[in-house]
Amino acid sequence: MDVVVTGIGLASALGNLEASWHGLVEARSGIQLYQPFLDLEPKPLALISPQPAELVPLTQQIVLEALQDAGLGLPLSDCGVVVGSSRGNQAEWEKLSRQPYLEDESILLKSWLKTLPNAAAIAAANLLQTCAPVLSPMAACATGIWAIAQGYELIRSGQCQRVIAGAIEAAITPLTLIGFDRMGALAKTGCYPFDVDREGLVLGEGGAILVLESAAIAKDRGAKTYGQILGFGLTADGHHVSAPEPESKAAIAAVWQCLQRSNLSPQDIDYIHAHGTSTQLNDRNEAHLIQQLFPSGVPVSSTKGATGHTIGASGALGAAFCLMALRHKTLPPCVGLKSPEFDLDFVRTARSTAAGNALCFSFGFGGQNAAIALGLDSA
User: Boundaries of each Ketosynthase family 3 (KS3) domain copy (predicted)?
Assistant: First the structure.
């Protein structure tokens, strides 16, 4: 059963789906120097607005945009929901931890329930008023691709005919900033994926939701399609809590798994949306993986130089940008890249293409590896 994408909702530091896409094609970046918390030093961040976003309102906004784009209205009682997040509603938990002790346990419980990590999935399900399956995956930076893969499987297995799938991240919190800073992972000036002078990642916020439907019901209602999900690969190596496994064995296995499930060979891939975090280890390992699996060369870019690293949502944004690339026959540039360290076919400026198949990669903490293949609608 073919699974097609009939709608996309997206928010990033560049704006909504259309604004983000145009910004990417023009090689603009949404990264600026911000100081959202006065007790922390200013950092380059990719914020949607001057103040950090809140998870639930951001989720509702993106879901509504996706449904509108797909030509669907509310309620959708039979629509599955797979909405993940790596940080979940951590911002609310941090706010709660700073409150004075509440003697009324009922108030404390009510406040605590708002901090649950599956808050985005709950918000989406409530908005749709659905009675279908509701899932909330969490797999570090691989969350977005994992969510889309689960939505794809819900349709392929016959459990649903329609699913909204993706990930949302409102990750700009004091604890997140301090944690990445203590690791030495944060950039000081900006995000420069695969560059010899890359400094580290720049945290961003946002998310993307794809409306997935069986090709049959999409055709029956005359829906437009961006393309189709061809297959996916998911592995975990457990090598280290944060560092990637040096030989990338499990990551390579995830890509091969994705290609085999999609009935594709490396020669069939026209574009790779790389994870490309701008950290030393990730970019080196990912570049070597691409060189090993695609020796004949394939166009590559990372969009994190424009949107920042949206952590668990990054794979969902990447999948959306792949679909836009296929639809508009344009490959987005690797924003921030000036002097490549690696011998790959990096997209330096927007490139016209007749691409038919794209891969999107995500590699997360704890050895979470994900790849998803997207293609033009065969219909």
Answer: 1-376
